[in-house]
Design brief:
It is built from five helices and two strands, in the order ααααββα. By secondary structure, the protein is mainly alpha-helical. A two-stranded antiparallel sheet has the order 1-2.
């Protein structure tokens, strides 16, 4: 094998290994994202924003009901968080455009329970 051929062979192998290592380091520690992981992160941020925006609205809907003190007492007597969330879901206080977002329901039930 000629010296120039050997130089090119090792150079190309070094380039390939360097590209793979660069991709591994970039994905692991560099903050690079794939499309799917970026979408998951975006959905988490959307859910967090919905919870932050709609939890006070849910609590206000609950408190503006005509029988709010009675319902609050009922809510506080419920033992499990799952049952409290079901209570909020059935009352439709956490409804957003005719749908109920589970994280909003959870946060609303927790906020009302702390009142």
């Amino acid at each position: 094998m000629d010296y120039n051929e050997q130089k090119w062979t090792y150079g190309l192998w070094g380039l390939a290994i360097g590209a793979v290592l660069c991709a591994i380091v970039g994905m692991s520690w560099g903050g690079w994202e794939t499309k799917s992981s970026a979408q998951v992160l975006a959905q988490k941020q959307v859910n967090a924003a919905l919870v932050k925006a709609f939890t006070p609205i849910c609590a206000a809907k609950f408190q503006s009901a005509s029988n709010a003190p009675v319902k609050l007492a009922e809510l506080k007597n419920i033992g499990t968080s799952w049952a409290r969330e079901t209570f909020i879901r059935e009352g439709k206080w956490a409804e957003i455009a005719n749908e109920q977002n589970s994280p909003v329901v959870d946060a609303c039930a927790e906020a009302l329970f702390k009142l």
